[in-house]
Every structure is written in structure tokens, then in C-alpha cells.
Write a structure and sequence with these properties.
single chain, about 350 residues, 8-stranded mixed sheet, 6-stranded parallel sheet, about 25% strand
Length: about 350
């Protein structure tokens, strides 16, 4: 088959990384990119058309088959909809927009185009440590989940790539919406939906109009409780998810990333020992030295398009439910809710 023509809207750190792995797929080819930072005379790779804005790129001829949306939260939903309405399959980075209404808007348009594939970039699902944890949980070898505790933090709200994430009118939220959404998505992956939420939100350190810490207690439909701290005051970057099960435990430590700042990626698995009375038990540790998550996520998306399969992970429903959970956490702090007029999602 002829290669599918791919355009990337937003050519920052994430867009450039997506480009690397898109071009590794035998059926995909990046033919256009756009970014407002491009100079007027930017030429780049002569095989790739370069534009300063997404609407010029979407009007190119011949048309694109696939659109990757790697843009700020305030325009991500609108560009996703533009792509769908122009007959393109769309892959959009998380979050799907700046609020729940954005993803609801996208879903209404998605329904009009059942022949097109829409996938959201919840990249952490494709890390090998997460996949191994999910395999163990589904196998039942350590029983059922009792509770979860997660910490995901970095040292600032504003990343090195720019400051829009600290502006509510562009981002819609702070560290929870930007980074903590990954941890919430994993908790949903392991447990299902959380309906009962308690939370505290603060921006006392960086003093932006978005949060730099979110603390949440979540109860799922089976009564299991998850604890989360999403932080922009974690001076040493940290990713840690502990899962207690009836017959043992799973701990996810670190996650491989482009910056390498979250340390090595490993999973620790232990089995409960009824004969031990001092809390000691045997465990095994598996370390993962390569990050294939970006490649595997894109290849799965391409397979769904080429072979007309359903999107099974990172669906618009996943995006909707995770966004609802984010904004339930915001709305369940009464001070934060009143300060920013945040409504609880339906």
C-alpha cells in the first residue's frame, strides 16, 4: 500500500519525538509539520513541508491522511475537530483540551465520522513496567487490588519548553492536568472508574493561577481507595505507584523519559507471607532499560488504521473519564472550586 501521509501540528519536544517513531513505521510518512516558532524562510527537510500555523497545513494538497496534534490545551480540541472534519485520522496528545467540555465537543464530532480513528496519547500505558503490572493484576496471581498510592512530581510548573502551562487561560489547569493526569489514567486502568473524590488543591509556592500541588483520595465502584499527590514542588523528579493486593504487592518506581530525570524504571513484586510476623518478605525486582512506549503507541494506532481495528487504549472515552476525574478533584476542594468557578462534571 502507499504510505499514509502524516502531518504534525506543533513541532516542539513532543512533536519532534513523535516524528522519529512515525517514520519508523513502514506505512507512515511525515510529509508536513507546523509550528509558530518557524521562521518565514524555514526550509528544514526538503521532503517535509513546513508551515507556521496548523490551518495552512490542513489546507495542503494532496490532503493528509493522519494528523498528530501536539499543541497547547486551549487549541488541541479545536484542531482535533478540524482534522476529523477534513477526513483525517487523529492522534492527540493528552490532555484532550483545557476542560471537560472540550473532550465532550470532540466526541460529538467523532460520532459523525465513524470511519475515522481517534486516539489520545496516554503514553504511560505503553511502558514495560506498567504492562507487566497490568499482566500480574489481570492474571490474579496476587489476588485482587486492595488500594493504591501514587506520587508523581517534578520541580516546577513551567517546563523548559515554555511557560504556557502556568497560564490558566491557555492550560486550564496546572500540574495535575499536565502530569498527574498520567497517574490518574493508570489508576483507572488498574481499577476502573472512581466516583467518590476528596481533595485539597494549592498554588502556595509558585503562586501561578494554576495548581502546583493536588492531593486526592479516590474511591472506586468496588470501594477500593487510591491516594494521589501530583506535585510541582518535588525537587527531585519522582514517579512512584504502589499497589497493594490481597496476596502481595506491586511497586512501580521511576519511568524512562527523554530527560532521564525520573531515574531507572523498575517494578518490585512481593508475595504476602502469613508465616512472617515482622513484616519481612521476599520480593523480586525487574529493571527496564529501554523505553519503547512511544514506538509501540504509534504502531498500535497505525495498525488500527491500516487494518480497520477499533482503538482499545487511549480512546475518547478514556480521555473523557480521566478528564472528569481531574476536574472532580479540582471541584472537591471548596476553596479552589469557588476561586476558579469550577463545576463538577456530570
Amino acid at each position: 500500500m502507499n504510505k499514509l501521509r502524516v502531518g504534525i501540528a506543533g513541532y516542539g519536544i513532543v512533536g519532534k519525538r513523535r516524528h522519529i517513531y512515525i517514520d519508523q513505521h513502514p506505512n507512515l510518512e511525515v510529509v508536513a509539520v507546523c509550528d509558530q516558532s518557524f521562521a518565514e524562510d524555514f526550509e528544514g527537510d526538503k521532503q517535509v513541508y513546513c508551515y507556521k500555523n496548523y490551518y495552512s497545513m490542513l489546507e495542503m494538497s494532496p490532503a493528509l491522511d493522519i494528523l498528530f496534534v501536539c499543541l497547547p490545551n486551549n487549541i488541541a480540541a479545536g484542531v482535533t475537530i478540524e482534522g476529523l472534519n477534513k477526513g483525517m485520522h487523529v492522534f492527540c496528545e493528552k490532555p484532550p483540551g483545557k476542560d471537560v467540555a472540550d473532550i465532550e465537543w470532540v466526541i460529538e464530532v467523532e460520532k459523525l465520522h465513524p470511519e475515522l480513528k481517534l486516539k489520545y496519547g496516554f503514553n504511560h500505558r505503553y511502558h514495560d513496567s506498567v504492562r507487566e503490572a497490568l499482566r500480574i493484576i489481570k492474571s490474579g496471581e496476587l489476588g485482587g487490588i486492595v488500594n493504591l498510592r501514587g506520587v508523581y512530581g517534578k520541580s516546577r510548573v513551567i517546563p523548559f519548553s515554555g511557560g504556557w502551562r502556568s497560564q490558566r487561560d491557555l492550560a486550564g489547569g496546572g500540574i495535575l492536568l499536565d502530569q498527574g493526569i498520567h497517574m490518574l489514567d493508570l489508576m483507572r486502568l488498574f481499577c476502573g472508574e472512581f466516583r467518590d473524590v476528596r481533595s485539597f488543591i494549592s498554588n502556595d509556592y509558585w503562586n501561578h493561577d494554576v495548581e502546583d500541588n493536588a492531593y486526592a483520595l479516590l474511591k472506586d465502584e468496588n470501594g477500593r481507595v487510591a491516594m494521589l499527590n501530583s506535585s510541582a514542588t518535588q525537587w527531585q523528579h519522582k514517579f512512584n505507584l504502589e499497589i497493594s493486593l490481597t496476596e502481595g504487592y506491586i511497586e512501580l518506581h521511576g519511568i524512562l523519559s527523554g530527560s532521564k530525570s525520573y531515574g531507572e524504571e523498575k517494578i518490585v513484586v512481593g508475595r504476602r507471607d502469613d508465616e512472617s510476623d515482622n513484616g519481612q518478605m521476599e520480593s523480586r525486582t525487574i529493571k527496564f532499560l529501554q523505553d519503547n512506549s512511544w514506538r509501540d503507541e504509534i504502531f498500535e494506532f497505525a495498525d488500527a488504521i491500516v487494518n480497520n481495528k477499533k482503538i482499545t487504549s487511549g480512546t475518547s472515552l478514556d480521555a473523557l473519564e480521566t478528564m472528569k476525574l481531574v476536574f472532580n478533584i479540582y471541584a472537591n476542594d471548596p476553596v479552589w472550586k469557588e476561586k476558579y468557578n469550577i463545576q463538577k462534571p456530570n
